[in-house]
Amino acid sequence: MDTLLQQVVNGLSLGSIYALIALGYTMVYGVLRLINFAHGDVYMLGAFAGYFLANALELDANPSIPGMIAVTIGAMGLCAIAGILIERLAYRPVRHHSRLSSLITAIGVSLLLEYGGQVVFGASPRFFPQMIRSETYVLGGAQITNQSLLIIVMAVIVMFGLEFIVHRTRMGKAMRATSYNLAVAKLMGINTDRVIAFTFALGSALAAVGGVLVALAIPRIDPLMGLMTGLKAFVAAVLGGIGNIPGAMIGGMLIGLMETTISATAYSTYRDAVAFAVLILILLLRPAGIMGSAVTEKV
Amino acid sequence: MSLARKLTVGGGTVALLIVLNQIFEHGVGDFIVNPYYARIINLIGINITLAVSLNLINGLAGQFSIGHAGFMAVGGYTATYLTVYHGQAVAGLAGSSLASPVGASIAMIVSLTGGALAAALAGLIVGVPSLRLKGDYLAIVTLGFGEIIRVIILNIPAVGGATGFTDAIPITNFFWIFAMAILTIVIVRNIAASTFGRALATIRGDEIAAEAVGVNTTRYKVLAFIISAALAGVAGGLSGQLFANPLNPQNLNFVKSIEIIVMIVLGGIGSTTGAVLGASILTVLPEALRTFDQQFPGLRMVIYALLLVLLMIFRPQGLLGRREIGWSWIRRPTRTRVPVALTDSADTTQHTAKRPIDRRSTLGESDTNE
């Protein structure tokens, strides 16, 4: 029973990371109908930004919660800028091409960030300094580190923040309008370019939070860390219903739980394949995802 | 072409390949081909097969598949497995052994056939779900299949697992590589110029309209996947049995699939000549940049990725667009003839009215404003 609880906690912790990244995927897809392959690499950038900030603040010597919050906010800001730059330089010129052109461009940007990261940061992994002192709590027979707990709590807070932005602010309304119909949103006087830039910034900031949080739990970061995680987060977004924000959260948690469960069994080497198998099943059985609504295509 | 003409051309090609193979592998008198260049040329041949086969799904049929490395892996591993574990037996059936060219050739034929069949089966498995999916989702599913295949192979110790299939017996040579490359080109060109190709072009243009007009999209899409996968499997079999080039699941991943896609994007999606051109350029380019890479390690892949992004922004139709270069072009250099199945309004250049959505890329239709 306690191993089950342990697995659940681990799964939720991992799932929160996937959820944070999946939110970025889902928002960009909702607004632009583009799968931003580079999103996983923005998560990597967030981890690296956090790394440099944490070292600058010398958090290794004196870990503190305000320090960690400062690092997170700094990483969020830097990644938001990165997201806006990527959109402006790489995606906007191809927006009027076919959707598949945009997809290939996104793949290109993703590879550019990964290999560029290897050139700039060096291919060898770096070790993230400890930002807060590690403590372990025992809860009903399971051992939970305060880092795992912090990940889950922070992810939930961030998600509530996102819900607030999307449903209770003007910009959020503009985002929702643009996601329904871009042309008509323009007609209604919404500056869609700015909305899209904002969406990218927001998604990238969330990915940065994911990057910093994951570095809390697993302090090893390298330029290729975004590839697999990004893909799995995308699967999570599809699982929950792409374009649907609560769906992304649920999808992330589910994928995290599934992956931890498989890791605990004898088939742990198939861990990476689980996410993709889930993806294929979902797309075959319920392409709209868990929370998505099936949209009939008018011809 | 009449049958007699076909046989002459075919026989002549085979004879030419045998002669070239002799020159390449064994040299003429004192002259031997620099092994480094020979290897690059061999790799070009394999990449041509891969690019042209991918072009069948992505270019002609307009289905976006980014799991091609998976088909290459399935075919390659099956082919290599057959040679390693059954090659001697097969060669022995013909009274020969793997060491002699005759025995090796027989083993090669058996192994490539096995690889092609296995890959075709994989293509069927991937193709059937593709019926319901379009665009981005299809891309992701094919990616997923590629990764699943890779993870499964990683877990099979009999074929080397994570260290790769190093037990492979190197029976690949110039003849087989280019024989298969030429075969692939011939197959895809003939498909493009046939009813099948016309159906694929219709599906590429507008799938719903194609269905409405009575084209059996299911059948043609699945067939395209099967044929393309089989050819990729052949390429995989050739690649895995090339000297000092073992199959390794770490190399047959998503990035490899993207490399093949860059080849056809560079050459022009939908153009077989473009695929050949793209494959050649992008096999030579990394080698040419190798000295550069030693000075600035890792910059090579950055240039690759940058090339892809810039290509999509500034010239999404690649070098040749959908145009082909064939015998007619050589005979009449003033006019480029395009196989009928590939013509559509995107090829006619109309510079009269400039509409914002007019920058057609050949990757499917532009989004009409939603």
Give a written overview of the molecule.
- The complex is a heterodimer of chains A (299) and B (370).
- In chain A, 72% of the residues lie in helices and 4% in strands.
- Chain A has 11 helices and 4 strands, in the order H-H-H-H-E-E-E-H-H-H-H-E-H-H-H.
- In chain A, the strands form 2 sheets. A two-stranded antiparallel sheet of chain A has the order 1-4. A two-stranded antiparallel ribbon of chain A has the order 2-3.
- Chain A is globular.
- With 370 residues, chain B is mostly helical.
- Chain B has 14 helices and no strands.
- In chain B, helix 6 packs antiparallel against helix 9.
- At the A-B interface, helix 4, helix 9 and helix 11 of A face helix 5, helix 10 and helix 13 of B.
Topology:
The complex is a heterodimer of chains A (299) and B (370).
Chain A: H1 2-32, H2 39-56, H3 65-91, H4 99-121, E1 126-127, E2 136-139, E3 142-145, H5 146-168, H6 170-180, H7 182-187, H8 192-217, E4 220-221, H9 225-240, H10 245-264, H11 271-285
Antiparallel strand pairs in A: 1-4, 2-3
Helix pairs in contact in A: 1-5, 1-6, 1-8, 1-9, 1-10, 2-3, 2-4, 2-8, 2-9, 3-8, 5-6, 5-8, 6-8, 9-10, 9-11, 10-11
Chain B: H1 3-26, H2 35-60, H3 68-93, H4 101-130, H5 135-154, H6 174-192, H7 195-205, H8 207-213, H9 217-240, H10 254-267, H11 272-288, H12 290-295, H13 299-314, H14 327-331
